[in-house]
Amino acid sequence: MKPSAWKLSIRSLLAIGVGSVLYGATSWIGIPIVPDTELRPAIGLLTLFGALFGPVVGFLVGFIGHVINDLITSGTVWWDWALGSGIAAAFMGLIYLSRDFDPHNGIMKKSHLVRLSIFGVIGIFASHTFSGLFDTLVMGEPNDTTVVQSISAGLANVAVFLILGLPAVWAYANRIRQGARVS
């Protein structure tokens, strides 16, 4: 039986710590696509931690990791975008709630991959909509700038999610299925 997604255990706390540091430290790696927006491979880490540990761990990894990255790269935290990273990872973590999904024991079906894809794409665009609206309505950023950033970052994140994130979760479950199971 897999651990609850709602209770923070030693294992989930370690996942939050490791995931946040990894996400924060690797989020600076990116390919510029529009001003202040990049294609970031680190989005794949949000997929992995969300799917493997659930929405709470996913949210905290995304949020804390984004804060770490902002502090490292600019010294200024964009709280709305940090919340957005958490929101996206929490949506990706919704797959963990499926009763028959247990990648730690090698249990992942193609139907899980489809559901994870849907949750992830919805989560990415929900998070970018939130962050873009927050930038416009609260921070006073120009609407045309935030729309371009939100859409381009959303499309870039979906691409990374589909190309790196989904295969990483699938590969993890397959590796466990072929080898020893994790308790």
From TrEMBL:
Question: Which Pfam family, any one of them, does this sequence belong to?
Answer: ECF-ribofla_trS
> Which Gene3D superfamilies does the annotation name?
1.10.1760.20
Q: Which residues cross the membrane?
A: 12-31, 43-65, 77-97, 118-139, 151-173
What broad taxonomic lineage does this protein's source fall under?
A: Bacteria, Bacillati, Bacillota, Bacilli, Bacillales
Source organism of the structure: Paenibacillus puldeungensis
- Superkingdom per UniProt: Bacteria
Keywords, alphabetical: Membrane, Transmembrane, Transmembrane helix
Official protein name in the record: ECF-type riboflavin transporter substrate-binding protein
